[in-house]
Design goal:
By secondary structure, the chain is an alpha+beta fold. The strands form 4 sheets. A 5-stranded antiparallel β-sheet has the order 2-1-5-4-3, with helices on both faces. The protein has helices at about 1-10, 10-35, 60-70, 115-140, 150-165, 185-190, 200-205, 210-225, 270-285, 295-300, 305, 320-330, 330-350, 375-385, 415-430, and strands spanning about 35-45, 45-55, 75, 85-90, 100-105, 170-175, 180-185, 230-235, 245-255, 260-270, 310-320, 355, 360-370, 390-395, 395-400, 400-410, 435-440. It comes from Devosia oryziradicis.
Amino acid sequence: MRSLAVANAPTPAAEASKDLAVGQRLQRLCDLLGVAGARLSNISADGLTAIAVAGDQTPVPALEARARAAAQPLVIADTDQPPMRFYAGMVMPGEADHPSQLLSLFDPRPRSQMMATTIAAVAGEALAMAAIARQRRVIEAQNKTIADFTALEEQRRTLFDRASATARIGIWQCNLSDDSLLWTNGVYDLFEIPRNTPVTRELALACYPELSRQRMEAARAHAIANCSDFALDLEIITVKGNRRWMRLTGAVESRDGVAHRVFGMKQDITEEKLLADRTRYLAEFDVMTGLANRSQFQARLAELDSGSAQFGALLLVDLDGFKQINDTHGHAVGDDCLRETARRLVECCIGAALVARIGGDEFAVLLKADLPRQDGLALAQGIVDTMRRPALAQGRTLRISASVGVAQYGGGSAEELFHQADTALYAAKAAGRDTSRSFAA
């Protein structure tokens, strides 16, 4: 027995080879995520023991300590502590014979919050899948000696749930012969259905809004017909009525070219989706007024140069004497005036291609190409008339006015159209303000 134990013990060379393989996988993960370095460490009562390191950067011990203690992955888009600016750390729970592990990702360059969260989500998914693969090998080895298949299946599901907890992933499968479903706890939790409840496709489909259901069914049918894979992000409504976003992946298992099982993962990406939507909103919209911001306006106007869009006219709107309102009554009153201006513009410009705030008290309106010239001129005067109405701001009744410059699009570049509208706006101001003018070529 002693000689057998010695023969089966891992040799230093074997351990070194294993560490090298893990390091190579870490480097591939770094390359995939575009980060400079990564470290995978075993967690023990004594601290962290590095298993493998990729890249030439060194993580900050204080951040690794925070990540180790955190209940959720620790993601810092910008540490403000050069030389390392970005950090993400996540813990993979251990098993009886395998310690918990900490994966750290780091880079000297900061990331946007959305990008940092996305990197962490992908890394967490990769970590969970690696653990699932490891546990699958353990289960397959145990399958040779465990006679009770029911006990083995329960163990498989428990291990899968523990492995996927960090990335909020659940495993699912559907037997195509009878449409029977098998879910791990992660999927039950995602749909807010009590664990171990018997589930059917009808019960699951009832949680999909119509558009999500159509997209999912189309992707699933295509994969089954072609024995291929699919992946898409979908909205669901849980049995408790909560709206969530889910990343669904699936693969078809076939026999002799005929699909017989579909299986894959379902991951709760609600926080990631909300963050992405919020980041996109901040990039494209003015927070104070809710109108499109200057960045979105410039992007839409530039469509003239690419030929992807045509517009009938551009109106530039400038509040008269807005600085005096701010100086006299304060910025809170000024902000209310801006919001009221935005509301009135939207009210006046129903059907416009875009209404945007492009500066402190400057607004722009892009009109559709099929709008007659006279309608554009009438709209400009209508804006002037609407802005004259008294405005209530912070309990004060104020009188505001606006000047409007109009440029009809008859060809040329986006820059030329903006210059023409700007010229018309200055003509309106020179005429005494509270009026509109049109650019005359």
